[in-house]
Structure formats: structure tokens, C-alpha cells
């Protein structure tokens, strides 16, 4: 008899308490990120999806908006609203897309998103006025892009843990590559279609539907048959021996949802006696559904964290510490030598647990109810009542106000320089794309260095990017525009890449999923408001000088206002601690009074 067989026999004989069995079931049923293998195909798919989505969003506006102004005889602000709705709904749909990923899986959502976005562009061809474009180009295509983007990020967290920072860094480089390639390719296509914006939309839809092929690679990560059979065997052993375990009065089924669910969903197998005869095969189908539920995206607290999981403990809430406290925190973690595992970040909060403490299967759930739960997370009272989190969220709104403006309107300032070719004008946007790639790689390096404050890096980068944007109206030479691309690209990259790291530093991992949805909503507001505001200033003043002054100032303010964020969060936590201590004292007094 082998050592493994002996251990298995021991487990059959020795009865275990429910919480111990629950932990064992989770350890076996949880599908650990492989950190490689097919995961690299997932990275390629995510890279291509980012390339398509951001490549289109960042580059088509500078071509289509002037065409709509001329074709529909409308103001710059009215035309800009179309692109802003597109980019806004790209963010707004995030919470809904995450709920859909949880129900249907990342591949199905990304496939549907590519079709929806392409259909939105094709419907826009027949638009008789700009208001129809708001619906088809903006809302429909924007929602489709959001459904393509979010699964591409979420699924990387399922496939990677220790190497997640590297995998995410490679994937999001697709954004920079897409911006670089399409900034140059769009001009060629624009001339090829004889500057017909409707034919150009056919090309845009074709590029978008290519994301369908990339999304096909997003194969879900599933538990092996061996894992499922082991879970079934443990449940069988527990059922045979549970009567020997003394009941704990403090034990609730809500403490063991996985075990309780398995017991309920395999109950029919016990009734006919098949399970009692030791046939593990008879409960495989029922067990497989519960194991699938355990491994859904939102069951992981770290699903929206883009850094390596080995640094989560080191990063968590360090934003509320001063330099000495953070250094001591890191030293203690290193001395502890305890290695983080992805299973540590499994969250039962997002499992759909019924009133009886069991997990509801997907077929037993309403899709609208799941979406409703995601939207309910946007009303997280604890986060919305947190001054530090609201400050972080509002800073995101201000950042997004400026985010797209240089991509769309930088060419208007380049028109001041005589003799520039179309290719030279487009090269500035392409350069932003290239520099964005380099900066994102640097951000990945920062994310894996807990001793470096992601918040401080983000603040400095945004302030520099904002100040640089404010100087654009003063440029008189082409090289000055090229220099501008450096700080602006770094600011954009740091904001996009370090957001989840900053949330971890300030809020911690427990609320990250809720925080992510709220932040996307605040950023969506900025994306909708920013470009039309810049265009409206042009309509009033006759040029884009004021637009760049104001939008640059907003970006610089968004960085500056986060400088006291760490201290504010620390004060907030200290106040909460005092409040809890006071409540505990009052409760103790009431208890003593009742005893008397």
C-alpha cells in the first residue's frame, strides 16, 4: 500500500469537523492559476483585444469628428459628444460586464462585445443626424468595447498569480501598439475611402470584429476531472462519518457554504442508496457544478488586482503608513517567510449563498439578479461614505476629462506649423502609443516593488502630464510637440496601470471589486464630459488654446489633490477605530447594567 493510499484510508476513518472539511474542499476544488502554459495564449488574446479597443478609441476621433462637423453642419461640441459617449460607456458598462463574466464566462462576454461594437459601427453608417450616432456609435459600440475590455483583464487574473504583473504588462501593451499602428493606418484608409466617413466606419467595424477571433482564445480555466472526483470522495467520506462529529452550537452553514451546497445538491444520491454503496461517480455531475461556482471570477478578491499576488500582503494598506511604518511592515513580512497563495484571496462574499447557507448554481440564478447585485456594489455605503475613497474617485473623473483631449485635438495645434505632412501630424499620436508601452512596463516594475509608493508615482506623473498639456498652445516647433508626448504618455500609463495598486494600498483587498466598479463609473463621467467641454471652449473662443489650459489644469489638479490621500485615509481609519472602541465600551456598560 502506497503512502497516498494510507493517507486516504486515514481520512476515511478519522471524522473531521465541517469547517476543516470546508477548507479541504476549497483547497482541492480551487483551480490555482497555472502561471504559464495556455495562459500565454490568454495573454496574446488580451493583447489583441486591448489593441483593437484602445486603438480605435484613441485614434478615430481626430478623423471622424471634423467629418461630422462638416457633414452634419454641427458644432465641435456636438461632434465631440459622440466620441465621449463611446469612451464613457466603455467605462460605465464595466460593472455589468463583470457580472456577465461571472454568469456566462469571459469568452462569451468578449465574443458578444465584439459583435455588439461592430454592429454599432455598422448601424452608424445610416445615421441621418448626430443624435442617432450618439445611440449607435456612442452607446452601442461603447458598451461592446467595455464587454471586450473587461474580460480581457479579468481572465489574466485567473491564469496568473506570481507572474500576473508580467502577463498584465504584456497584455496592456496592446493599447500602445494599437494607438501606434492605427494612428498611421487610419490616415491611409481615410485617403483610400476618399474621406467618406461612412465607408471609414465599415473599416472600423471590420477592425472591431477581428476581436471576435482573439476572444475565441479566452478558454475558461476549469477544474480537472481528478479534482472533481476528489471533492466527491471527501463529501462521501464526510457523510459517512459526520454523525461521529459533535455538533458545534456556534457553527453556521454560512461558514461552510461549499460543503453545505455539496451536501444539498448530492442529497438525491443518498436517498436511492447509490452513494452509500460508495459510488463516487454517481455524484460527479452535482459536484462539478459547485466546483464551477467556486471558481467563478468574482469569487476571487484579487480578480481586479493587476500586480503579482506575492506582493498583495506587502502592498495592502501601506498607503496609510509613513515611510518608517511601511519599512517595518515589509521587514516583518520578509521575516515571516510565509508565501502567499491564490487560495488565500478566495472570497465567499461574492458567492451566491442562499438563505440556507448553500451556493446557488448558475442555472438557478437570474442573470438580471446577478447584474443587479453588481450594480448594488456601486452603492457600497462604506466606500461612498469614505472621504479618502471619494477623493480618489473624483480625481479619476478629473483625469479622464483631459485623458482623450490630446489624442483628438493635438493635430489642431500642429496645424499652426506650416509644411507638416499628414504622416508627421499622426506620428505624435503614434509616439504617445510607443512611449505608453515603455511607461507601462515601468509601471509593472513599480507594482512589483512594494517599497515604492504607487500613489506618489501616480501623483507626480499626473501633475507633470497636466502641466505639459497646459504648455501645448505655446509650441511653435514640431520637436516641442514630440517632447510633450513624453510626460503625457507617462501620466496616462501610470494612471491606467497603477489604479488597482493604489486601491490596494489605501483600501485593502476586501473591497477591491466594489471599489473597481465605482471608480469605473466616476471615470466614465470624466470621459463623457471632457472632450465636449474642450470642444465647447473652442466653439466659444475660436481655438483650442483655452481647452488645453483648462484640461491640463484639471489633470494636474487630479494628481495634486491625491497628495494628502494617505494621511486622510490614516485619519479616517483612526477615527473608525476610536468609534468602534467607544461603541464597545458603551456595550459593556449596558451589559453590566443588565446584569445588575
Automatic annotation (TrEMBL):
<keyword id="KW-0812">Transmembrane</keyword>
<feature type="transmembrane region" description="Helical">
    <location>
        <begin position="516"/>
        <end position="536"/>
    </location>
</feature>
<keyword id="KW-0472">Membrane</keyword>
<dbReference type="InterPro" id="IPR011701">
    <property type="entry name" value="MFS"/>
</dbReference>
<feature type="transmembrane region" description="Helical">
    <location>
        <begin position="389"/>
        <end position="409"/>
    </location>
</feature>
<feature type="transmembrane region" description="Helical">
    <location>
        <begin position="133"/>
        <end position="154"/>
    </location>
</feature>
<feature type="transmembrane region" description="Helical">
    <location>
        <begin position="78"/>
        <end position="97"/>
    </location>
</feature>
<feature type="transmembrane region" description="Helical">
    <location>
        <begin position="109"/>
        <end position="127"/>
    </location>
</feature>
<protein>
    <recommendedName>
        <fullName>Major facilitator superfamily (MFS) profile domain-containing protein</fullName>
    </recommendedName>
</protein>
<feature type="domain" description="Major facilitator superfamily (MFS) profile">
    <location>
        <begin position="43"/>
        <end position="570"/>
    </location>
</feature>
<dbReference type="GO" id="GO:0016020">
    <property type="term" value="C:membrane"/>
</dbReference>
<feature type="transmembrane region" description="Helical">
    <location>
        <begin position="197"/>
        <end position="218"/>
    </location>
</feature>
<feature type="transmembrane region" description="Helical">
    <location>
        <begin position="454"/>
        <end position="475"/>
    </location>
</feature>
<feature type="transmembrane region" description="Helical">
    <location>
        <begin position="548"/>
        <end position="568"/>
    </location>
</feature>
<dbReference type="InterPro" id="IPR036259">
    <property type="entry name" value="MFS_trans_sf"/>
</dbReference>
<feature type="transmembrane region" description="Helical">
    <location>
        <begin position="481"/>
        <end position="504"/>
    </location>
</feature>
<dbReference type="InterPro" id="IPR050327">
    <property type="entry name" value="Proton-linked_MCT"/>
</dbReference>
<feature type="transmembrane region" description="Helical">
    <location>
        <begin position="166"/>
        <end position="185"/>
    </location>
</feature>
<keyword id="KW-1133">Transmembrane helix</keyword>
<dbReference type="GO" id="GO:0008028">
    <property type="term" value="F:monocarboxylic acid transmembrane transporter activity"/>
</dbReference>
<dbReference type="InterPro" id="IPR020846">
    <property type="entry name" value="MFS_dom"/>
</dbReference>
<feature type="transmembrane region" description="Helical">
    <location>
        <begin position="429"/>
        <end position="447"/>
    </location>
</feature>
<dbReference type="Pfam" id="PF07690">
    <property type="entry name" value="MFS_1"/>
</dbReference>
<feature type="transmembrane region" description="Helical">
    <location>
        <begin position="38"/>
        <end position="58"/>
    </location>
</feature>
Amino acid at each position: 500500500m502506497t503512502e497516498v493510499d494510507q493517507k486516504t484510508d486515514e481520512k476515511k476513518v478519522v471524522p473531521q469537523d465541517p469547517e476543516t472539511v470546508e477548507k479541504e474542499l476549497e483547497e482541492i476544488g480551487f483551480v490555482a492559476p497555472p502561471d504559464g502554459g495556455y495562459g500565454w495564449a490568454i495573454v496574446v488574446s488580451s493583447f489583441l483585444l486591448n489593441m483593437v479597443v484602445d486603438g480605435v478609441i484613441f485614434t478615430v476621433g481626430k478623423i471622424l469628428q471634423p467629418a461630422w462637423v462638416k457633414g452634419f453642419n454641427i458644432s465641435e461640441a456636438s461632434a465631440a459628444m459622440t466620441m465621449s459617449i463611446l469612451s464613457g460607456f466603455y467605462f460605465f458598462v464595466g460593472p455589468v460586464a463583470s457580472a456577465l463574466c461571472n454568469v456566462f464566462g469571459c469568452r462569451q462576454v468578449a465574443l458578444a462585445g465584439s459583435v455588439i461594437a461592430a454592429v454599432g459601427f455598422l448601424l452608424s453608417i445610416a445615421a441621418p443626424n448626430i443624435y442617432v450616432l450618439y445611440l449607435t456609435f456612442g452607446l452601442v459600440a461603447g458598451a461592446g468595447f467595455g464587454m471586450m475590455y473587461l474580460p480581457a483583464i479579468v481572465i489574466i487574473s485567473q491564469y496568473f498569480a506570481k507572474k500576473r504583473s508580467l502577463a498584465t504588462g504584456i497584455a496592456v501593451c496592446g493599447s500602445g501598439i494599437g494607438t501606434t499602428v492605427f494612428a498611421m493606418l487610419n490616415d491611409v484608409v481615410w485617403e483610400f475611402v476618399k474621406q467618406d466617413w461612412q465607408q471609414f466606419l465599415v473599416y472600423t467595424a471590420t477592425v472591431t470584429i477581428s476581436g471576435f477571433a482573439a476572444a475565441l482564445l479566452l478558454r475558461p480555466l476549469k477544474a480537472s476531472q481528478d479534482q472533481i472526483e476528489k471533492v466527491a470522495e471527501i463529501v462521501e467520506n464526510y457523510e459517512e462519518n459526520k454523525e461521529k462529529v459533535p455538533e458545534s452550537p456556534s457553527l453556521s452553514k454560512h461558514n461552510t457554504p461549499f460543503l453545505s451546497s455539496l451536501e444539498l445538491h448530492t442529497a438525491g444520491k443518498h436517498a436511492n442508496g447509490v452513494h452509500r454503496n460508495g459510488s463516487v461517480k454517481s455524484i460527479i455531475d452535482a459536484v462539478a457544478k459547485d466546483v464551477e461556482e467556486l471558481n467563478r471570477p468574482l469569487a476571487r478578491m484579487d480578480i481586479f488586482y493587476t500586480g503579482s499576488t506575492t506582493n498583495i500582503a506587502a502592498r495592502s494598506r501601506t498607503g496609510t503608513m509613513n515611510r518608517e511604518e511601511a519599512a517595518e511592515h515589509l521587514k516583518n513580512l520578509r521575516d515571516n517567510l510565509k508565501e502567499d497563495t491564490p487560495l488565500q484571496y478566495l472570497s465567499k462574499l461574492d458567492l451566491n449563498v442562499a438563505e440556507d447557507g448553500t451556493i446557488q448554481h448558475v442555472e438557478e440564478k437570474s442573470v438580471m439578479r446577478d447584474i443587479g447585485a453588481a450594480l448594488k456594489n456601486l452603492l457600497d455605503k462604506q466606500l461612498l461614505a469614505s472621504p479618502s475613497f471619494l477623493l480618489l474617485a473624483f480625481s479619476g473623473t478629473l483625469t479622464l476629462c483631459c485623458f482623450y483631449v490630446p489624442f483628438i485635438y493635438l493635430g489642431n495645434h500642429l496645424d499652426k506649423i506650416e509644411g507638416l505632412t499628414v504622416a508627421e501630424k499622426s506620428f505624435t499620436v503614434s509616439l504617445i502609443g510607443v512611449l505608453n508601452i515603455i511607461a507601462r512596463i515601468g509601471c509593472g516594475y513599480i507594482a512589483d516593488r512594494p517599497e515604492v509608493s504607487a500613489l506618489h508615482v501616480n501623483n507626480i506623473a499626473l501633475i507633470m502630464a497636466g502641466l505639459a498639456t497646459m504648455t501645448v498652445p505655446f509650441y511653435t516647433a514640431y520637436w516641442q510637440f514630440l517632447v510633450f508626448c513624453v510626460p503625457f504618455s507617462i501620466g496616462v500609463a501610470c494612471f491606467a496601470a497603477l489604479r488597482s495598486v493604489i486601491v490596494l494600498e489605501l483600501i485593502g483587498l476586501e473591497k477591491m471589486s466594489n471599489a473597481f466598479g465605482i471608480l469605473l463609473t466616476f471615470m466614465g463621467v470624466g470621459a463623457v464630459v471632457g472632450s465636449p467641454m474642450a470642444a465647447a471652449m473652442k466653439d466659444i473662443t475660436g481655438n483650442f488654446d483655452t481647452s488645453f489650459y483648462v484640461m491640463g489644469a484639471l489633470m494636474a489638479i487630479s494628481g495634486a489633490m491625491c497628495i494628502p490621500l494617505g494621511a486622510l485615509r490614516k485619519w479616517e481609519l483612526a477615527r473608525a477605530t476610536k468609534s468602534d472602541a467607544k461603541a464597545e465600551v458603551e456595550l459593556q456598560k449596558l451589559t453590566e447594567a443588565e446584569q445588575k
